[in-house]
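Q: what does this look like with adenosine monophosphate bound?
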Amino acid sequence: MIRRIPENQFAKVRLIPQKGLSEWLANVKTLKMILFRTAADFRSWLLKCRNQGIKTGFVPTMGALHDGHMQLIRACRSTADICICSIFINPTQFNDSRDFEKYPVTLENDIEMLEKAGSDVIFLPGVAEIYPDGEKGLEIYDLGNLENVLEGQFRPGHFQGVCQVMSRLLGIIDPDHLFMGQKDYQQCLVIKRLIHILGLPVHFHTIPTIREADGLAQSSRNRRLTPDQRKNATAISRALNEIQVNLAPGSPEPLLKNALKTLERAHFKTDYVSISKADDLQPIQIWDGKEKAVALIAAFQGDIRLIDNILLN
Ligand code: AMP
């Protein structure tokens, strides 16, 4: 399961020198992106940053970067003194091994995009760096009902994997600010809960979803869509918009049925369409016209699973 990244892909990136750390640090804002591959090197560099009162921002990703990720980098840069991006395709969060195998890897392009966007540091750990004792005996977190609904229901174990990698990354980096996308709405709630469980002082920022001109939420998985599937894929954001426009107090059941039809017509196989409470994702049976609500969809176009959501009020 371990994905090896050829060393020569790093040719264009400056590796952190073993000596002269303090000179590098003195110029931290004028440096081009620095790449770390081991937690130990990275932590000793971070310690020196911290000692100088430098505030760090962190954007965790799985690579195959697009403008949605860059929006997180931009937010990070405008908030923190230095912007750290990690790329790690986390095996423990894939409940479907084929999805893991087919996850796009575009490392050179990712590095170029990050460099252009002005990311200061890229952390590219291997699996052994994140899971030094292997994948057995990893912590299990109490995520309450978040683990049983929606993504939790359809991707058993997924959020435990997300928490395992995030607790390791947050433990290594200990950032002042963390940036994640609303595109993965449930993941944001899960990570806020993890931060609470771990008692971390990090500020969590939820960044709005970046979309293509036709409404499709940008996603690394979009690059696997065939031209026909890509056309069909707009049905997700259409269905979400229809829900938002037509939401009224009472039962949202007819809206859910309508959304399912919209998806079916576009050849989607739907895992769920839900109108849920925005704070805990419990399904709303009767909407009172006031409760903060979010509509969420997960559906397959061929073997590619896409998710999206919209805040309704
Ligand atoms: P991923 O690489 O898919 O794990 O995503 C890394 C981060 O980027 C997560 O916090 C995602 O929610 C966020 N993200 C992914 N797609 C988008 C998007 N279209 N707009 C904004 N953020 C996104």
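The chain has a mean pLDDT of 90. Residues 180 and 280 are 18 Å apart (CA to CA).
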